[in-house]
Amino acid sequence: MSDDRYLVNVIVYSKYRGKGYGIEGLKLLCNKAKENNITELYDEIAIDNSSANMFLKYGFEEITRNEKYLTVKKTL
């Protein structure tokens, strides 16, 4: 991945997962990025990480995939 991309990283402590905090975190990050004139956000997610579904549901699109990672992108 290029060094000039803005990477999103949302980590929710395990006992709080599945309660909507990840989506709220993504919303806050996207809103703050827009305020700072950032037009695209990316993340690399391990193939076996269930958070990939959260990113896709929030409007990120899959742009690449290999045996280890899924790369997603959201245009703001």
Task: Please provide a brief summary of the model.
By secondary structure, this protein is of the alpha+beta class. The protein is built from two helices and three strands. Strands 1-3-2 form a three-stranded antiparallel beta sheet, with helices on one face.
Describe the structure.
The chain is α+β, with helices and mostly antiparallel strands. The mean pLDDT is 92. It has a three-stranded antiparallel beta sheet with strand order 1-3-2, with helices on one face. It has two helices and three strands, in the order H-E-H-E-E. Strand 2 (61-65) and strand 3 (69-75) form a beta hairpin. The chain has helices at 21-35, 51-57; strands at 40-46, 61-65, 69-75.
Give the strand tally: 3
What helical percentage do the residues reach?
Answer: 25-40%
List the strand order in the largest sheet. 1-3-2
Residue windows where pLDDT falls under 50 for at least 5 positions: none
First and last CA, distance? 19 Å
Strand portion: 25-35%
The Cα radius of gyration reads: 12 Å
Q: What's the SSE pattern? A: HEHEE
The helix count comes to: 2
Structural class: alpha+beta
Largest sheet: 3 strands, antiparallel
Shape: globular
